[in-house]
Amino acid sequence: MKKVIWIFALIALFFLGDRVGGYILKSLAEKSQFRYSRMYQQDIDADILLVGNSRGLMFYQPYIEKKTSRSTFNLSYNGMPIDLAEALVGDYLEKNKAPDLMLLDVTMCDRMNNQLVAGFNMYGPYSPRIRQLIRDTSTTMANATILTHLYRYNSEVFQRSLTYLNKSDEDWLLDRRILQNIADDAVNYPEYNITIPEPAMPALNRVIKMAKEKGVKVKLVINPYFPAFADRIMNLADFKSTVEKATGEKVYNYSKSVTDIDGFGDYQHLNKSGARLYIDELIKDGIFGSLKAQETMKLK
Amino acid sequence: MIFNSIAFLVFIGIFLPIYFNLKEKGQLWLCLVGSYFFYGWWDYRFLSLILFSTCIDYFVGLKMQGENDQAKRKQLLIISMVVNLGFLAFFKYFNFFIGSFDAAMQSVGVDVGYNTLNIVLPVGISFYTFQSMSYTIDVYFKKIKVEPDFIKFATFISFFPQLVAGPIVRAIDFLPQFSGGARKFNWDRITSGLGQMLWGFFKKVAVADSLAPFVDQCFAAPEGFSSLHLIIGIVFYSFQIYCDFSGYSDIAIGLARILGFDFPDNFKTPYFSKNFSEFWNRWHISLSSWLRDYLYIPLGGNRGGGFGSYFFTIIALIIPVFLSGWYWLILVYGVVFAFIFRFAKKDIKNKVEVFTYMNLVITMFLGGLWHGASWAFAVWGYLHGTYLIVQRLIGPYYKKFVQTLRIPRPIVVAGDIAMVYFFTCLAWVFFRAKASKEQLLLGIDDFDIASQYIAGIAAFEGMSFGTVINKFMVAKGVILIATLLFVEIADFKFDFSSLIKTNPVFRVISFATILWIIAFFGSFGANSFIYFQF
Predict the structure, then answer these.
(1) With an 8 Å Cβ cutoff, are B223 and A182 in contact?
(2) Which value does ipTM take for this structure?
């Protein structure tokens, strides 16, 4: 009998601790200023919605807002695949006022990332789309989420939400400069091709469709690469035309728009100073729309 | 099948209830069938290899028993050695030796053009081969009796908890446990076995697999990271490999205990070692003691050695020079041997000591190669052999030095532990360095990666935390390592293992806590264990 009590005590204690722990972590996540916590907890009223993977972070919000006088919201995250972006954009448009413009870096269509989908487990309780995505990715993971609440918070996404508990995440962008030897070595980087997984283009189309249905103007871009590294991507032009063909949208190619070595954190990412140069280019090319028109809008 | 998989959970869920409801013979049969199923889940074709090895050693043992002629007994032992080591040499080292020979010939302008074969390395071959060989060697030296029951013998070779990644359990420790009646459902054994398994899962799933991505990133391209980043990388690797391997051992030992078998410890907090001899008494104990008993001592051990030592020394030292093309090593050997023989001339005691050094190097070199067919593993072994020699050489002077300066003992102990850990990490760089296929095409090999790594650390550039990429992984890793060390120190002080047995409240709380930690920190990608490749 004692042994049975022992087993029940263990099970009871595990679930009690798990639920209490899960509740505490949930409360912390909800209080966070991290982008997704804000998105699911608050009403966002942004003019421009920015979407991408880690390369989408170079849509440096403080500078865009300063230069365009328009509010922004960035959904980008390291390694974000387009199917996860689809769920997040869907939730954003459903919960919040539709933005005027959605700017999306299409290089995020180069991979699917089940591991990151697992990382967004913590937002499952707020989003049927994320719950479905997790079920589609792995039923084991989906069942584990039901079994233990602590498991939901077992991710870097949660750790980031703790980092931004009391501060804004809008400044999240590399601040370092690429090491000189790495920069010099870019010409020797093995040639490679961007591959597009089969589900990526249909998912991108659905994202565009959702946005357009809400009256959001969609612009697709290829964010900058370190120029010598961009030369090693052998099918960048093909990639651009494939996306254009699949979506019927023009893709603005900024892959070599920043040439200043001080503007890069590594081959694929601009740092803050590089992001400023890039955003100046976007503004100059009217990607954010006419500034005069924007100012008029603000005055209204 | 790996322990951290759903398949294993299902397997053990079916296995245990049947096992405890069978009689002794039935349990043995179930263990054997279960073990072959467990192994065959990975690749059933290699079951024939285990079975063949088992049959050979079983019949060699039987033949030896009825044979009094020492020469014939020796012949039988040689048959067993040739078969076991032959399999190992073919499956594990064939391509390595062919490739190395080819490279060596090319370096002297001869193109032999041997082709390597596409050979799949059978999981755990190094472990079960050593386990099987220990039986025939012990029978030959009449240390154990022959096992006449084939089922018992086959189960001893293929016992699934420790089949693919150890610990290597000797026949002398394991075979006697098969007698004594059916194993009953024993609550104490089950709770303590479960405790050890849970701790093993914590080490593997939470610690090792969480540290792995950071380590992989560091070793993929060391030249791209700051010194601090690389230092964190090697510290993380030291704990990754420890937790990965000792985690497997804990699961294996815990599972065996549940099934009614007692295996000796395979790890005893090795990073708290104060010298290298102690390190090898605490790290992968089943392998180091195997190498000690079946290689080091037969070579002469601490007693020096004779012709065998000379022969193996020449083989061990000269062949790598030609195979690697590092001819400058001959100069290094010259300086080292001049130094050693300068002392050796004094008296016979020093001569014995010289051979002891050689025996140490040979044992550690072969121990390194046991881990994998790569010169980087051999260098890792060499380094540890060298550490042991240097320790023997300077140990007495160091003791005197410490006594003369009257340094407080805690400081000496902390310094010793830090020193051993530092040099162990240095050796780990060679152990972990592995060039990718792309890097090999660019002419970058394992040694280049290791050199880049050490040069990157030695440059001491970028020592601020700002230069470290992915601070979240670092923070998580530090928390997990701190938890591990805290529990290991607390276990040493308060004997957690006994508390788990005697105090039910402590047991419930500690089990629940480990489960919470695994749920919150665990990496659930069903990652394979590092030692499977060995």
Answers:
(1) yes
(2) 0.80
